[in-house]
Amino acid sequence: MEQPNDSRFVSIDRIAEAPGVQDALWAFQGHYEGISFVTYQLARTVAGKVDAPFVRTTYPESWIARYLLRGYVEVDPIVRDGFARRLPFHWHEVALDSDAANFLADASAHGVGGQGYSIPVVDKVRRRGLFSVNSVLPADLWKALVELHKQEWASLAQIVHGKAIYELHGEADPVPALSRREVECLHWTALGKDLKDIALILNLSDHTVRDYLKSARLKLGCATRSAAATRAIHLGIITPWPRQSPPNKGP
Amino acid sequence: MIVSIQAHEYAAYPEVLAQMFRTRKAVFFDNLHWQVEVDGEFERDQYDDMQPVYLVWCDSERKRHYGSMRLMPTTGPTLLYDVFRRTFPDAAELSAPGIWEGTRMCVDEKALAEDYPHISPRQAFCLLLVALCEFALVNGIHTMISNYEPHVERLYRRTGATVHELGRADGFGRFPVCCGAFEISSQVLSSMRGALRLSEPLYDRSARPIPTILADYGKAA
């Protein structure tokens, strides 16, 4: 049924459901045409506490070894800027000093593509991650690809960050706190209702329903609404059958 | 020019940011009597230490501040989540990339009157909203969450903005507080540009000086 070696058959759910960060990165790379490498980094220092560096990447071993050996983390302008920025950015927007320019030339000589896009991630306890995508596509094609996928990639970056926190600290809330509206929207999604149906039922705008479902889906670590509804059922957050109304959230 | 200023760019705008914190004190502490933290002549709080993005209208010399707001992703700590979680649980608990909160939106009426006498504070407010919409579209943000007083909603609607009220509560001040979601899309942007008779973009991602559109704005109206 599944053909994991063929990129077209790697669904976006497979990225979110990958057992670890490294698997998720491979799945991500396989899902989108035109991507050379994917990297996720967690900021080393969090609120005064020094963590072990956490980096997962699909770059070749030879480049990773060279990067570590030469202490490139100190000059890598993407890392330096990425943890100060809040907004996703193209690598060409980053200001370069001569060290950084030499580093990028060396990277290019070792197969790193000329195009890159990084997505800063932050969670409720202020842990910072950086999700980066690299490509050899020409600039115009790359820009179009990013425009097409940037919202989806931002969601997946958040999901990968959650996996990293789990790998590093083993802390994942198996039953995330969802608001009443998020639960209601999941309930009706599980019953096969689409955005417009749910908006009518709950007397909300389509846009608001979309927001609640996106928020709920990411709290559940899912890439799609249907996966989120399924997960919510498994966790007992919703019980859409046989009852026809969503559960009340406690007294 | 209307620019976004992230943490790695703060150092390039020292005077503008200082003026922003002064304006915030004048608007929120002195005028509106909000219970906000004041540090000397500045209004600053813990969220300003969390590397927020500021959307700022300033001159091209980076000396003068005309208006601004503070923007944070809802995946991280937000004022709405910490302060209004009990009041507006549905809105405050929204958390996703692409959903950001906007707070402390203000205009410096004195600086405006001096440099842009033809732009009223209300027009300035509307222009900032259009720039916010442009900023959000460029950066993959589809929803801005914000709290506001009920009468401001009429202003939002007159600018062509699409606001979905997610909650409303009494007990914070003279007026009820509303919490709403601003829809960001190219359709909303063109409706806002139409309502304000704008033909060119206001927000400049790369912080280059923009055309004379602001200098001319309002003269024709």
Walkthrough of the structure:
The complex is a heterodimer of chains A (251) and B (221). By secondary structure, chain A is α+β, with helices and mostly antiparallel strands. Helix content of chain A is 47%, strand content 13%. Chain A folds into two domains: 7-169, Beta-Lactamase (2-Layer Sandwich); 180-234, Orthogonal Bundle (Arc Repressor Mutant, subunit A), CATH 1.10.10.10. Chain A is elongated and about 65 Å long. The relative contact order of chain A is 0.12. In chain B, strand 4 (53-58) and strand 5 form a beta hairpin. Chain B has 221 residues and is α+β, with helices and mostly antiparallel strands. Chain B has one domain (2-216): Gcn5-related N-acetyltransferase (GNAT) (Aminopeptidase, 3-Layer(aba) Sandwich). Chain B is globular. In chain B, 44% of the residues are buried. Chain B contains eight helices and nine strands. In chain B, the strands form two sheets. Chain B has a seven-stranded mixed sheet with strand order 1-4-5-6-7-9-8. Chain B has a two-stranded antiparallel ribbon with strand order 2-3. Chains A and B meet through strand 6, helix 6, helix 7 and helix 9 of A and loops of B.
